Amino acid sequence: MTTGSLVVADEVVAALAESRPVVALESTIFSTLGLPSPANAEALARCTAVIRANGAVPAVTAVIDGVARVGLDAGEEQRIHAGSRKVANRDLPVAIAQRWDFGATTVSASLVLAARVGVTVFATGGIGGVHRGAERTGDISADLGAIAAHPVVTVCAGAKAFLDLPRTLEHLEMLGIPVVGYSTDTFPGFWMRSTNLPLAHRVNSTREAAAVAQAAWDLGYGGGVLVAVPVPESEALPAAVVARAVADAEAEAARSGVTGPAVTPFVLARVADATQGRSLPANLALAEHNAGVAAGIAAALCALV
Ligand code: PSU
Ligand code: MN
Predict the structure, then answer these.
(1) Cα distances (Å, whole numbers) of residue 42 to 29, 47, 106, 189
(2) Which of 15, 143, 220, 232 is the most exposed place for a label (fewest CB within 10 A)?
């Protein structure tokens, strides 16, 4: 599909036409906003490789030369790693109309693009959610509304660890989003396998996850399903280490006047320091693991229809 505003890679068009599995990926986590270089490039390479190894086609989303893109070649992927302009769903029409050179899509913008072209499974690291202090600031990520609005399965390792996670779960419930733990009964905590926050539902296989999405769509649900997958055990960080590192990082961000979109990269870098670099391999491992699970769900969905 090609319009002035949107270009889909030939490989993605072909896979969709033949009902073969496709997994969408965002680009913010693979830009300087999500991970430092060169870890961001390694993360994307590992995610696309595991999607292919599991028999699916990766479809990375981004805005490049004023055009929304679904599926990139290697040269285009390089532009993500240097990029630093964040494009959420509210920004996407503006980025195209004003022909932004480059825009790194967040979860919310990626879901718009995936849904538009008929990609039904999307993988990321952690979703955005309800920020701490949201009762004062109103800061709730557009990711949550986008998951509710678009018929796409989002596979994540929970939400950013410095969010208000109980309120994030309440908000997902309010939006009517089916949230299922993948072989877990609790909400995963990004770098940690568990937050000890109970989830209402659990699945134990990609086939079961696909069946939940298929049932939702059979019933006419217009929105998505959230599959929450714990970070692989070998790379997980201890909860106490993460809690202390995040608290210190947030206090330092507040002292140095870091606000808005700059907070995530700042906290991620500080947590990497505080954990002697162990947060970075955990981040890469969870993104790769999610991409592999997403490919399995995409394959199972293809087998169901
Ligand atoms: N989680 C992370 N790192 C990130 C993001 C999430 O651990 O960089 C990005 C994702 O692209 C997500 C976005 O969609 O942050 C949410 O941003 P906001 O809170 O501004 O809605
Ligand atoms: Mn926000």
Answers:
(1) 11, 9, 18, 22
(2) 220
